[in-house]
DNA sequence: AACCTGGGCAACCGCCGTCGA
DNA sequence: CTCGACGGCGGTTGCCCAGGT
């Protein structure tokens, strides 16, 4: 704070880069590596600030960047990871190694966000907007929301742990590469240094973990009873850390859980409501064609990503270490990635789409489709967990 | 042909976390 | 422990261009 902007210096150029500038930057980095970004412009003969050079390099000039249209799988990955991680573009970018966080962010803001909105899905919460209109009794609502929160955070914990592990691995491998490559740039290396944010980058934070712990610590002091958490706080910001009300501990079914421990969340579904959005958009050929080609009765495809209607069973205390170990044991097959994802996101969820008359079905009482819905939900989120637990390099989609 | 408008994207801005002196 | 330098991140801006009027 109070620090002067890096480009305050008079004479430094701003705005679009010229081919000559690109060439200078490229040539310098290829020869010397970027080293200190602040010192680079002078050495490379550029009238730019170091930050501008870094951005130009990471977002445009880097040789391992894949440009052009996002394919369907990339879109799905972005959507699902966004559901987990929120606007943490760099984290999302780690699963799309050839895409920059900036590119993903732009694509989200200009395409995917609008698409989800048109489908009736809140792009922030990834919930159907119809949810807000459904009225259910207070307790079940609280329970559902608590479950929502718990599952959400569980998935995010997994993702966070995954990032920790990946960054460690990357740091390790990069140390190896450093011995044989120019600093800061590894031309021709088989495995790219990753996206913008993956270059030996430590995870940004484990704020979720911390919050969870904090919340749980608080809860241990509380009555451990009701479902009184502040729903809005939890639900409205997938990117935020958790907020627990003073007297409203998250409810864990299990008995005592030690301080600083986290209870394992298990996806145990119940019947419940259906929240859907319907894709009926002209011109969304990829999505639409998929729906047509599969076993769908019509063009209606619902994209259900809710976390409702799950109950959680807190079975055993766990901690970040156990979580990490748990992640290590997860192996995701190619089929899961290729079929499960597409299927779950586009086809599977379509089976619970709304009817064309737009009338939402009433599932509050747990209709006969509830168990299927539960299965779908479980599979959906398991697939996301699989995604975040799979190494990008292992993923067949890359 | 000229003008308007909206979409897409590169780049900038400001804040934050980390690290070393 | 403090402070400054630095890099990274997410939000936002503004330019460019294509399509419409």
Q: Identify the overall geometry.
A: elongated
Could you give the distance between the termini? 40 Å
* Alpha-beta classification: mainly alpha
Average pLDDT reading: 54
Estimated radius of gyration: 23 Å
Poorly predicted runs are 1-5, 135-140, 174-371, 391-398
- In what range is the share of β-strand residues? 5-15%
Number of helical stretches of at least 4 residues: 13
Q: What about the largest sheet? A: 2 strands, antiparallel
The spatial strand order of the largest sheet comes to 1-4
Indicate the percent of residues in helices: 40-55%
- Return the domain count: 2
Order of helices and strands: HHHHHHHHHEEHEEHHH
| Number of DSSP strand runs | 4
Organism: Populus alba x Populus x berolinensis
Keywords: Developmental protein, DNA-binding, Nucleus, Repeat, Transcription, Transcription regulation
Subcellular location: Nucleus
GO molecular function, one term: DNA binding
């Amino acid at each position: 704070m109070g620090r002067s902007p890096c480009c305050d210096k008079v004479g430094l150029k701003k705005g679009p880069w010229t081919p000559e500038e690109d060439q200078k930057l490229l040539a310098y980095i290829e020869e010397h590596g970027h080293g200190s970004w602040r010192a680079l412009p002078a050495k490379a003969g550029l009238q730019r600030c170091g930050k501008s050079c870094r951005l130009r390099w990471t977002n445009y000039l880097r040789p391992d960047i894949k440009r052009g249209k996002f394919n369907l799988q990339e879109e799905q990955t972005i959507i699902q990871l966004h559901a987990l991680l929120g606007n943490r573009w760099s984290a999302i970018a780690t699963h799309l190694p050839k895409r920059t966080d900036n590119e993903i962010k732009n694509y989200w803001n200009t395409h995917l966000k609008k698409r989800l909105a048109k489908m009736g899905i809140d792009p922030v919460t990834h919930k159907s907007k119809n949810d807000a209109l459904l009225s259910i009794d207070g307790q079940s609502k609280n329970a559902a929301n608590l479950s929502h929160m718990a599952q959400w955070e569980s998935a995010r914990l997994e993702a966070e742990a995954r990032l920790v592990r990946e960054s460690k691995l990357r740091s390790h491998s990069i140390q190896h590469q450093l011995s044989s490559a120019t600093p800061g740039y590894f031309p021709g290396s088989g495995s790219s240094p990753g996206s913008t944010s993956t270059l030996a980058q430590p995870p940004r934070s484990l704020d979720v973990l911390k919050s969870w712990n904090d919340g749980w610590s608080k809860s241990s002091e509380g009555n451990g009873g009701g479902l009184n958490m502040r729903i809005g706080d939890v639900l409205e910001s997938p990117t935020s850390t958790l907020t627990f009300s003073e007297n409203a501990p998250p409810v864990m079914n299990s008995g005592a859980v030690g301080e600083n421990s986290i209870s394992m969340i298990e996806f145990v579904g119940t019947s419940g409501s259906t929240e859907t959005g319907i894709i009926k958009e002209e011109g969304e050929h990829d999505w639409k064609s998929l729906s047509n080609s599969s076993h769908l009765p019509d063009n209606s495809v619902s994209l259900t990503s809710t976390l409702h209607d799950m109950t959680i069973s807190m079975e055993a205390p766990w901690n970040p270490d156990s979580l990490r170990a748990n992640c290590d044991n997860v192996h995701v097959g190619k089929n899961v990635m290729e079929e499960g994802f597409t299927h779950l996101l586009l086809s599977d969820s379509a089976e619970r789409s709304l009817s064309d008359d737009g009338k939402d079905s009433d599932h509050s009482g747990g209709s006969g489709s509830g168990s299927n819905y539960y299965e779908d939900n479980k599979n959906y989120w398991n697939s996301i967990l699989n995604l975040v637990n799979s190494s990008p390099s292992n993923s067949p989609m890359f």
